[in-house]
Amino acid sequence: xxLGDGGTVVLHLGLGKTGSSALQVGxxxxxxxxxxxxxxxxxxxxxxxxxxxxxxSGNGMLLARFLVPWLHSPEEATQAHLESILxxxxxxxxxxxxxxxSSEFLYHFGETQLRMLDHRIRELxxxxxxxxxxxxxxxxxxxxxxxxxxxxxxxxxxxxxxxxDDEGYHPSLRDRxxxxxxxxxxxxxxxxxxxxxxxxxxxxxxxxVLGLTVAFADVDPIPEQVNRSLTDWECLLMRxxxxxxxxxxxxxxxxxxxxxxxxxxPDCRTILSQDAEHxxxxxxxxxxxxxxxEPLGGDLALLGDVPVVKGHSRETLPAREDRVLVWMAELLSxxxxx
Length: 338
Hints:
This protein is α/β, with parallel strands linked by helices. Helices cover 49% and strands 9% of the residues. The protein has 15 helices and seven strands. A five-stranded parallel β-sheet has the order 2-3-1-4-5. Strands 6-7 form a two-stranded parallel sheet.
């Protein structure tokens, strides 16, 4: 990506489950190094969490409250969010030719709002650039599923999740990226193949995505898994918690607690043959389209390193473990009433 002559506003939009939290940790910890290289990463109230290596939604949440329709506050406040962002961009140090915002929520932009942002950024003599990480489809679908079990109260099987109309797996990757290219131009979009670069996610972002030639000798090590997925066993546990506990706040607390400790229980990380066929029917053309754009790192794959197996997944816990879950659910629910 060229951080161009007139200055650029770079939006890192995700996708979800492609290391966004780890990137945001790296960006906060190396804000000064980025500024010396000419990239301003505006501060955000979540910076203290990111500096500790915790999960955040990045520094782009105020921008998301303008861009994302379902995050909109009243119209006058939404416009104020845009004006605040523009003031921050305009007030950057003259040595910083680029301004960088990062949040997975930005991926859910409305086209009208994005075009308005593009127009206002051009009035400042700058241009928009977009960064989207893509992940091999089967692995991404599994991680999305486990995240929704962990934090959104999902109770259905992975197979049902893939086929659900509303709360299922619908990344809309090609449609979203086509809008980005239509707004900013074909060269405005940089795609990165997450699976190929995950071992050096932050240095790759600095060097290959932002195109910085400065040697980032002060790049801090990033926790191996800032926001890890659940194992198969943990996923079954959380599905039972979700069935038994109605309070979404408590469900999230339980899921976050489970993910904050080392993984427990078996994790086969496989996909059933019928689910692989379903993904192939839905996403083979999208994979081909992405690869024609030559994502940084390597080609997108349908299955990647996820093995395909025949048979049926185990959908019930052993009786002893299920009794433990009932006890946990009662404990959580009684705590919410106290």
